Amino acid sequence: MRRWHVRLAALWLVVPAALGADGPEGVGNDECVVFYGDKTVYPPGFGYVVENFIRVRYPASTSRFWHVGAPGDEFERVETLNAWFDELVVPLHPTVIVLSTGLGDGLFQKPDEARLATVASEYGRLIDRCLTSGARVYVVTPPPPSIARKQVLGSLHYDGTVKRIGDAIAGVAREKGVPVVDWYGAIVTLQAGGKATDLTGRDGLTPSEFSHSVAAKALMEAWRLEPLDVLVTVNWTGRTVTTSHGRAEVVEESSNIVRLKLSEFPIPLRIVGNPKGEAEVEPPAWMDRCRIVLKLEGVSDGQISIAAADSADTGLMFAASALGEGVNLAAGGPVSQHAAVVGLSDWIAKKNAAMQTIEFMLQKNRSEPPERELKGAIDAFVEAGRQYVAGCEKVILRLPRTMDIELRISVDTGGGR
Question: Quick one: CATH architecture of 32-222?
């Protein structure tokens, strides 16, 4: 086969100032954001997703993010959140606090007016303490269980109780002028449309990665975060490329292969649960807010593969008609698995895992006070952990928010490879 190595055309574009120059509209560029609550603040927590999205969508942001909570039946009651507030939240000096709780109350309490009144009173006190600290506050309602589990969980009154608790929480928040992010309502809306069946883990209670993606999208909208919307258009006939962000260059290798070089190109939000973008896996609810679209002009039929240029892998396969309309490279494949994407996500996870370890230690020390010979060592361990988290934050802030990548686009007009 005849091979060409001719650089035919290039279009260089500066990354627009809109990509992160001014910061998010609903939350500033230099905030201390604390997600405080029950198991919903831990992996695959919606707060992790929102933190990661702000990092990639607003690369100039220097905001710090803390995900503060601990599993366990006791901790998932709002009274316990109040009891731990001074120890876990106040030292962080938050400017924004996102409250997410209610699962424990829904699971372990039957519908009871006295309990609902207690929850409302305690939640109101928690909101007041957050406001007194000087932070802006957002309240997230607890999510429902999966449809398949409702009949089993009905004996525990879980779904009905969580709904009533969520309504009570939301009511108190609105009385105090605090915005409400309705996770429960967003899930119910999707269920009514025939979507969102994979809502929980095997226990039917703990929110699934998809359920967290619904909450993440709702919070993105509440904070008015702008979508990451990038368009790359390749003209196959003219061997040219245009891009809305970063820089792009086309190099023709053969009559049916083009190598596309992208430089200083925005990185997408990582999809942890479906890195290859398999069609049978339900995409995250926030996928429409993270779009790196590739359009191919000048090819009307056949099969097209997109792979990393240095990979022997076939890559993603598409019909020409699909690429004519545009495909989202953020949904899976070489762009979504680039080292810059994975590295940022991994460091965020590493930082947050360290925070979880600290909180476990603090919780254990309260429930089982240590021997006096160990107290100094445990205090030093907790302080060292906090310093480690602060160090991770510094690493995260210096990590690249753009990538350099080469893609191989192959066209097979015979209908297959």
Answer: 3-Layer(aba) Sandwich (3.40)
